[in-house]
Amino acid sequence: MGKIVSFLGRRVVKSLFILLAIVLINFALIRAAPGDPALVIAGQSGASDPQYIEQLREKFHLDEPLPQQLWTYVTDVATGDLGYSYRQQRPVWDLIAERLPATLLLTGIAYVFSLGMGLLLGTLAAVKVGRWSDTAITTIALLAYATPLYWIGLMMILLFSVQLGWLPAFGYQSVGAGLTGLDHFVDVAAHLVMPVLTLGLFYMAVYARLTRSSILEVRDMDFVKTARAKGLPERRVVVRHVLRNAVLPVITFAGIQAGYLIGGSILVETVFAWPGVGRLAFDALLQRDYQVLLGIFVVTSIMVLVFNIITDLVYTLIDPRIEVS
Amino acid sequence: MRSTDTKSARRAWYRRPQRGLMAAAAAALLALPVAGTLLPATAAQAADDTQAVQKGGTLDIILNPEPPILILGLNQQAPTQLVGGKIYEGLLRYDHDLNPLPGLAKGWEISEDGLTYTFHLRENATWHDGEPFTADDVVFTAKTFTPETNPRWRLIFSHVDTVEAPDDHTVVFNLKEPFPAFIIGLGVTNMPIMPAHIYEGTDYNDNEMNDTPIGTGPFKFVKWEKGSYVHLTAYDDYWQDGRPYLDDIYFRIIPDAASRALAMETGDADISQFGNIEPFDVPRLSKLPNLELTTKGYEMFAPMAWIEMNTRKPPLNDRRFRQAILYALDRGFIRDNIFFGLGRVATGPINSVTTQYTPDVQKYPHDPEKAKALLDDMGLEPGSDGVRANVEFLVMPYGEVWTRLAEYIKQAMGKVGVQVTLRSTDSAGWAQQLSNWDYQMTNDYVYQYGHPALGVARTYISDNIRKGVLFSNTMGYSNEKVDELFAKAAVENDDAKRAQMYAEVQKILAKDVPVAWLLEMEFPTLLNKRVHNAVTTAIGTSDNFADVWVEPKQ
């Protein structure tokens, strides 16, 4: 137990330094892009004079020297304040927080769906390797893996919304319907189907392929032969011996995907007009809304770091040979 | 309650009608009895009652991109105008020919000498919080609020000497000199009247009411679900009896262009405007049985698209080179194949749907031989590889159309021996490089706001060569005669004299080609046929929608 505590302590300290580095690099990268929010707004207003641009720069605190802006930002973040979006006139944390539920709902369900289906299909394919079901699964996985997400999304909208009228195409609820209770639940669930499938199919394919190849590597190893020789039933061999050893690369990848639960669905959120954090980031980038963009980077970075640590801990649970150190 | 929409009618996605373009397999699936019972009323049945106004109902409008704020007085971007135009009102409105119509001013007089403008205001108009609307609001907005917040009004207001309110429902503007464009500049897109009781004496940008806009318009603000929709509802105490007809308006935020086209197709959205739909989707959508297309309602904006050339840099500093570019381009081809028939080939600096336009200028038909002759004349002979000159072209990052246009320009100019290198960036980068003169050629389109003194002169006068400022004279063109004509014409009260000055300046500019005019742009407004009266004025869908009514959703 002491081992784990000291492991956690060391990792957290390390993570803080990494986070600081990430903030610095992000800050520098964003500022390296030409153009600033004042110019974007002027461009969209169809009018500008020097006074207007100056007002905007002053309002956004862009008239201060860069090191001072950076210092203000880092100290604010250190005290848990992600800053203020002058463009949207709201605190950054509020903006992110109001988009978080929608995004987590979408990515969370897609995560569970892709992980579950991926493991299942991958195992099935590996067990029946070379047979028709393996071929079918591998082909589907390859297609889902290679097809651009937004294209799948648009094709699904064309089929299920435009042609068949079975599923709603946009948003997360029927706007203005004022539904409550079970109706509301069904409504949101119907809105979720296509975005979740679109987002989940890609990761499902990744997990399926990983699981399949990993199992194929493990299944001919000596300890598996031993298990079979002991006369264990095939199901037990696969689940207890093969899968447990084969699942490590899948966990690695699942850890990475979990890190992107917050910001990783920009395309899907855009195509389906899903009001999530990914779109907030995309809009912020186009509008040069520095504070919002940095805020999302920070939150996403923290998620990645946290899930890295969790992944390492999960390793030790599944494979006792790996020790925390 | 005025509501006629039922909950299930709003949740229309699960009972979508069958469409003609159905694939065979899909048709088979839809032939299920359930789907059959849900088919909509026939078109003939719907057409019967289109004449009688129907009260109530809900309208869905595409909103893109999501505006940063809805206070129209603080932000003049097109999406803000679309929403804010229903909440706020201006003194005047304008018909498609830019003739003023009553707005918050029910009548007005202009003195003979063109110096005094008197407006009589609506007596029964109120703010959405119940406060009465008075002349104080107008004086505050014109004199204090808008000069600080809107650069376009700043230009107009520089001609104004005093603004006075002799009584609660009269406002008098005294001008320093005649400025005939003044009467065009009083719409909601330039000077929306703001509530003095909320903003007077506060820091406008930090006002705590900025989350809940309060206007005098037919619709009041209900809710803004960020990233999803904006909801407005009918204002029951609107000054015009029996208006608005609609109960609710929802502005749907749909960020992806292909998804927006689908939303119009499925009926999820009833109205799209400006560049919401990519031009290549417009011909297909406008043929759908449930949609209709109009290009009216942009007369106030009347954008002109051109190739902007940095006249500080050779060979672009030579008029012959700029003329050669116009001869090298087939602008009819650009209109028909890149803008899919939207727009008119431009003849000069002024858009023909606004005021003071003359067609009587030097013309530039598609003539590559003439272009080559002009380049020969400059001494730009083709080298062994056929290249006479190299120029760099900054692609305008405002959608696929502009990328295709840049590619066409590269090809057309290559044919006369000018090698064009395309450079790409995003909108912030584009704005910075253009406004800091760090470019050779690019595309741009600029709104003309109904009058050359408001939206045309700024591009060509030397006073407006200002580094770091977008939509100024970024190409660095300078011609004393042009400066003088624009300055004099703006303050000329005599119609005939003014027209003559503007005609002369157009002739000079058409010869100098400070920018290579491509198209008087038209934007496609797509409307679901169940929507009536949506486009009746010079600002189209940005107007207040008091008279708009809808048939029930199918």
Helices and strands, with pairings:
The complex is a heterodimer of chains A (325) and B (554).
Chain A lengths: L1 H31 L4 H9 L4 H10 L6 H13 L5 E2 L4 E2 H36 L4 H15 L2 H15 L17 H38 L3 H8 L4 H13 L1 H12 L6 H6 L5 H11 L2 H29 L7
Antiparallel strand pairs in A: 1-2
Helix pairs in contact in A: 1-14, 2-3, 5-6, 5-8, 5-14, 6-8, 7-8, 8-10, 8-11, 9-10, 11-14, 13-14
Chain B lengths: L6 H4 L13 H7 L2 H5 L5 H6 L9 E6 L14 H10 L4 E3 L5 E3 L2 E6 L5 E6 L13 H15 L1 H7 L2 E8 L2 E6 L20 H4 L19 E7 L3 E6 L13 E6 L3 H10 L4 E2 L9 H5 L4 E4 L9 E6 L9 H10 L2 H8 L5 E2 L22 H11 L10 E6 L5 H16 L2 E6 L3 H9 L5 E6 L5 H4 L1 H4 L19 H11 L4 H18 L2 E6 L4 E4 L2 E2 L16 E2 L4
Parallel strand pairs in B: 1-10, 15-16, 15-17
Antiparallel strand pairs in B: 2-3, 4-5, 5-7, 6-7, 8-9, 9-10, 11-19, 12-19, 13-17, 13-18, 14-18, 20-21
Helix pairs in contact in B: 6-7, 11-13, 18-19
Question: Overview of this structure, please?
Answer:
- The complex is a heterodimer of chains A (325) and B (554).
- Chain A is mostly helical.
- Chain A has helices at 2-32, 37-45, 50-59, 66-78, 92-127, 132-146, 149-163, 181-218, 222-229, 234-246, 248-259, 266-271, 277-287, 290-318, and strands at residues 84-85, 90-91.
- Chain A has 14 helices and 2 strands.
- In chain A, helix 9 runs antiparallel to helix 10, helix 11 (248-259) packs antiparallel against helix 14 and helix 13 runs antiparallel to helix 14 (290-318).
- Chain B is of the alpha+beta class.
- In chain B, strands 14-18-13-17-15-16 form a 6-stranded mixed β-sheet.
- Chain B is globular.
- Chains A and B meet through helix 2, helix 3, helix 5, helix 7 and helix 8 of A and helix 2, helix 7, strand 10, helix 9 and helix 15 of B.
Measured between the Cα atoms of the first and last residue of chain B, the distance is 22 Å
- Which architecture of the largest domain in chain A would the CATH scheme give at its second level? Orthogonal Bundle
Task: Please state how the strands of the largest beta sheet of chain A are arranged side by side.
Answer: 1-2
CATH class (first level) name of the domain at 304-521 in chain B: Alpha Beta
What assembly state would you assign to the polypeptide chains in this entry?
A: heterodimer
Structural shape of chain B? globular
Number of domains of chain A: 2
Decide which structural class fits the backbone of chain A: mainly alpha
Helix content of chain A: over 70%
pLDDT averaged residue by residue of chain A:
84
CATH-level-4 superfamily name of the domain at 304-521 in chain B: Dipeptide-binding Protein, Domain 3
Total beta strands of chain A: 2
CATH topology of the largest domain in chain A: MetI-like fold
Portion in helices of chain B: 25-40%
Q: Given the structure, what is the number of helices of chain B?
A: 19
- Architecture of the domain at 304-521 in chain B, according to CATH? Roll
